[in-house]
Specification:
9-stranded antiparallel beta sheet, 152 residues, mainly beta, 9 strands, 0% helix
C-alpha cells in the first residue's frame, strides 16, 4: 500500500527549498560567533503525510537550514529540525493533534511539545485551528463576513 494513497489533496510536496537574505542591521553585536554583515539562509524541507485509517493520520517533516554570512560557511551554521504531528479524528468536525518540534539551535537543542485542535461548529460559522504553542487561527462568520484571530 502506498503511503500517498489517501490524502486531503491530490498533490504533495516532497521537497521544498527556501532562501532568505537579511540586510545589515545596526544592532550591537556582543557574540563573536554571530555574523556582522548580511545573513543568508538556505533551507531544504522534506516531509510526508500519512493516513493510517479513518481515525489516525500523521505528518513528519525534516527541516535543514544553513544560515551564514557570505564569508563564513561551516557546519557551525547548520540547523536541523524535525516535526512530528499525529492527528486523531474524533468526528468530521473535531480533530485532536499531538506532536513535537525539535530543533538544533546555535545555543542548543530546543524541544517543543505541540497540542492541537481543529473544530468547526455544526452551523459552520465558528472554526478553530490550533497547534499550540506554535500557531492559532480562530474565525467566526457573521453573514458573509468573517471575524478572525491569527497568532504565530
Amino acid at each position: 500500500m502506498s503511503i500517498f494513497s489517501r490524502g486531503s489533496q491530490n498533490y504533495f510536496d516532497l521537497i521544498n527549498v527556501t532562501y532568505t537574505n537579511t540586510t545589515k542591521n545596526d544592532f550591537e553585536i556582543t557574540d563573536a560567533n554571530l555574523p556582522s554583515d548580511n545573513l543568508n539562509v538556505i533551507g531544504l524541507n522534506i516531509g510526508v503525510n500519512r493516513t493510517f485509517n479513518d481515525t489516525w493520520s500523521a505528518t513528519f517533516m525534516l527541516f535543514s537550514k544553513l544560515a551564514s554570512d557570505a564569508t563564513k560557511i561551516s557546519s557551525d551554521n547548520h540547523q536541523l529540525a524535525l516535526l512530528s504531528l499525529v492527528t486523531k479524528k474524533k468526528c468530521s468536525n473535531l480533530k485532536y493533534r499531538y506532536g513535537v518540534y525539535v530543533n538544533t539551535e546555535k545555543y542548543g537543542l530546543i524541544v517543543v511539545p505541540i497540542f492541537g485542535l481543529y473544530y468547526k461548529s455544526a452551523n459552520k460559522k465558528f472554526e478553530a485551528n490550533l497547534n499550540l504553542p506554535i500557531i492559532g487561527d480562530i474565525n467566526y462568520e457573521i453573514g458573509k463576513k468573517s471575524l478572525g484571530w491569527y497568532a504565530v
